Every structure is written in structure tokens, then in C-alpha cells.
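Hi everyone,

Forwarding the result from last night's run.
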Amino acid sequence: MSTIFIGWSGNKSLADKVAKLINQSKAHSAIVGGGAPKDMYVGAQVIGQINKCNSAILLVENKAEDGQISSNLMFEWGYIMAKMSPNSICTVLINKSHRDLPSDLLGTWVSEVRFDRENGDEEEFARQIYERYLRDIDDESKICYFDDINDWKRLFANLKENTDLPEDDVCRQILTGCLAAYYYQDNRQFRKMLDGVSGSLAVNETVAFAKAYVDVFLESENMTKALPHTVFFEGIEVFESTLVRKSKLPEKISILLDILCLDVYGLSCALYLKNTDIDEETRGYCAEQARDRLGKMIESLDGIPEDYDPNPCLVQLLKSYANNDLAHLYKDSFGDKEKFLSYLAVSVDERKNLHRSFVAAYAGNSLLATKFEQEYVVALSEQCNYMEDSFYKTMCKKSIKAKYAEWERELVYTSSLTDRIKRHIDNF
């Protein structure tokens, strides 16, 4: 059940009526902003109210006494935009145009509506606003998980500063934080921050998983080294518990948790195989476990609901992970070149699609766009060494070398990813 914050400007009567409809539905609950302050600072109370909510309805209307939008509402609006996904904010301009808004708000999505204050039925108008909210903010199905990954600073601040976030939001942001922290090279800070996050059974189980997930990358130095024995066995215990967890999460968050768990479980087994002091029986067992978990992850991704994420980036990212890990498992542990190349080809395609989708959806995030492009070029450069079509192979080589030269000049982007591209180029 979502909790909706209702901000208002000289129209509290309307806000109360909308809140009444929401609370009567029993599908959601509502908090009307303001009220008698319990703190000497009014803003502290409003911030506390907003922090308890995961979506908002803003009723933007000029106050009768001075014909202006309430400054309190403008404060709330700015704070909500910093804390919530744009998909979770329903802004209604009443008898106003978006052109009347301050320039900093001109890029926000709003609905313009007309209401006759003298002759209109306010209860009917409240019903229309609630129906508009239901249409525009279809709760879980409208949540774009990749928005969290794109806006890492907001996500990190939410988890670090707010203890009053709804349980589902905390669990979702912890899971997307696992992905974001890796790409923003913030795993260590994220791992430290998780020590301060606790709550319900669902939150605590998700935190335990996230810690084990991050430890895999920290202790293997981002998959470049073997996973130490202790970290491996402690992690496997957590991953097994996660797959049979006791808490109940919304279906879409539960799907993401299961998929990430299968991925890191398989990856942990593959990384453990890098140790040279394990016996053949253990080596064979870990290889089979890795293949089983990664195979189940791909099955889960293939069966994922079409409306899982309104932005395709998340599914493309997860598919690129699974197919890449499985490709190298078949190459390194099973010596199966055919399956290696088959899974690698899928990974290359998914990484290419991910980069295109991300640039289209988040044009302003050049840092993450470049990282996704580098991952695509890494996979393509590896695939290039096995291509049989000489013309296509030559074209790919030229493209890869040009990209590598570009990134080599831009030192800010030089990383382990470009080092891997260089190693593949040396094999051309």
C-alpha cells in the first residue's frame, strides 16, 4: 500500500477531500501536508511527512488572498522532486498554465485543469483528481527501477538519512543501490552505509543480502581475483537464505531480489574457481552450481513480465550480466567453445541495446553512458577475436581501436574496462 503526500496552496478543503477518497479506498493512505507543527521549525514537520510517503499529489492553485502559489507548497515541491522519482509525482495545475511556473520547474510534467470555484462541485473535482492520480501513477508498474541507478546521489542520501521511508521503498533502493554502487565505484561507501540501515524483517533480510553481494565485488577486487574461502562460504549461506526468505515483498521487488541473488550466487562460484588450492571435486561442484544458478537467472529473465520496468535498461543490464558470466564459465570450466560464443553473442547484443536505451532515456548522464559503452566494447573486442566474417571483423576492429584511442586520451574514463579492451586488441 502506497502512502501519498498531498501538498496544497490555499485549497486545503480540496486536499482534505482527496485524502478522504484515498483513505476510503484502502488501497492507499494519504497525508495532507501541514497541520499543527510539533516542532519550532515548521519545515521539519513537513519533511517528516514527506519522508513517510512514496508518491505525491500536488494541488497547485493561486491563493485567494494574494493570487500567488503558496511559498510553503513551493518548498514542499522542491523537496519532493529531490526525494521522489518523477514517475511518482502527480502535479495538478488548477486554473493555471505551466507557463506561469518559475523557470526551474518548466521541465516538470504537470496536468492543467479548470475548476469553477463559485459553481463547481468540489467533491466531484476531488474524485477526478484521485482518478487522475491512479491513471498517471500506476504505483508499482510505473516505478522505473533504473531511475534509482541513474540518480545515485539521491538514492544514497535516501538510505543514509531517512529512517521513515516505506518498507518497500527501502528494499527496492537497497537492491538498485547494489547495481549503482558498482558502476559509480562506491561499493565501499555503500557497504559502510548499509551497517546503519535496519527495520522490518524484509528490510533486514534485504540488507543482509546486499552486504554479501557487495562483499563479493570488494573481496574479488571487482572480479579480477579469486574470491577468498571465508567470503565465499559466508556469502553462499546468505544467498541460500535469501532464496528461501521468510519475509514477503511486493512481486516486482521479489523478482529483482531473486534474480540478483541467482546472479551473484553463480558469480561467486565462478570466482571461487580462480583459487588454485581447491580439489577437483570441489571445483566440479562449484562449476555445476555456477551453471545452475546462472541458467536459472536467464530463465527468470526470459519469463519476466513485459511491464516489469517501463524502462528497458534494467532487464537489458541483467541479461548482459547473466549471459556474460555463463559464457566465461563454459569457456573456463567446461571448455565448450560453442556455448561460450553463443552466450557471449547474446551478452554483446544486450550491452549494445543497454547503451542505446540508456542514452535515449538519460541523455544527461555521460558518466554512466560511457561505462555502459565501454562494457559493450569490452565484450565486442573479445568476440572479435573469434569472428569468421573477415569484412565484419575488420570493421569491428577499426571501431574498437578508435573508441580505445578516444578513451585513452580522456584519462577520466581510463579504467580496468579500457585495460581489458587493450588486451583484446593485442590479440587482433
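Residues 215 and 287 are 20 Å apart (CA to CA).

Cheers,
N.
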